[in-house]
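hey so i finaly got around to running the thing on Lrp/AsnC family leucine-responsive transcriptional regulator from Allorhizobium borbori. pasting the sequence first so u can double check i didnt mess up the copy paste, my clipboard has been acting weird all day
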Amino acid sequence: MDQSKDGELDPFDLKILDAVVEDGRISITELSEKVGLSKTPVTARFKRLVEEGFILGFRAVLNTQKLGLDHVAFAEVKLTDTREDALREFNRAVRKIREVEECHMIAGRFDYLLKVRTQNIRRYREVLGEKISSLPHVASTSTSVVMQSVKES
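ok and heres what it spat out for the 3d tokens, dont ask me to read them lol
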């Protein structure tokens, strides 16, 4: 099968993406065995997938329990102002809070959902009070604490 056209993914490309998601450090040799193509076409396809933006990068997945960061909470954030300038200001400021792992703008009864990881509930309370509540245009917050993570990426 020929290499797919620009922007189109074929079954080999999808197998490459699946394998890389499972193990970002997989060697080209292992990748070619998993995909069922020789190293040269797998290398070309992998390079194209990166260049075309299907693969945005690679990251280390840390053992948060060993790092003492096994407290996870989700903070719902309601803003006082949702005009574009206010949203940009909030977005810029929330990116600077190290403890906020994820931030999503939500359509619903609140404006943002933040995934916050800290050492314990005491530290979370500090982050919420000193950092999150001080973000631009925050009107109110509500917290849900994770009891067990069943699936994380």
